[in-house]
Amino acid sequence: xxxxxxxxxxxxxxxxxxxxxxxxxxxxxxxxxxxxxxxxxxxxxxxxxxxxxxxxxxxxxxxxxxxxxxxxxxxxxxxxxxxxxxxxxxxxxxxxxxxxxxxxxxxxxxxxxxxxxxxxxxxxxxxxxxxxxxxxxxxxxxxxxxxxxxxxxxxxxxxxxxxxxxxxxxxxxxxxxxxxxxxxxxxxxxxxxxxxxxxxxxxx
Length: 204
Fold this sequence. Notes:
With 204 residues, this protein is α/β, with parallel strands linked by helices. The chain has helices at residues 12-20, 41-53, 59-76, 89-95, 99-106, 144-151, 177-188; strands spanning 24-28, 31-38, 81-84, 116-117, 126-128, 131-133, 155-156, 165-173, 192-201. Helix 7 links the parallel strand 8 (165-173) and strand 9. Helix 3 (59-76) packs across helix 5. The longest helix has 18 residues, at 59-76. The chain is globular.
């Protein structure tokens, strides 16, 4: 599939290319983030096929290392709770599944609880000479400051995380804004994020 080889979802050479990509590490909101892969090459192609085309048959190629990184993060703090960052509502409706849940299941990891998305307040449309205004812009159209402002307060952690060590997990980390919001939400609930994990990370 990655190289176009017929009758194969992922050929041996493409599997080797995925395994050859190094793991990534960076800080998000002062917490170490471990990514199973860099978001490039064969990994990027597989993730896009999985998330945009629903190619769940490709999950197994990505799941092994992802599960291993999650396991290492949990071993770092025995007793820590694994909590996933929820997908956007539009993404979940479009795909019909959560990629993180699918990948963890293929790696033999039980479905972790998710943070909660805070409903967005309805905004009254404003009209001017140029037509409707006040419409929310897509993330790609926003500046870095606007992305942060639009993300703060969008997630909430359950109160049962108070006093607990937490490992946060998501699929792809790009700017790190969403993961930083997840860290904020856990801290606001009285929990302590000891490690963040992602399937893939976009090099900043």
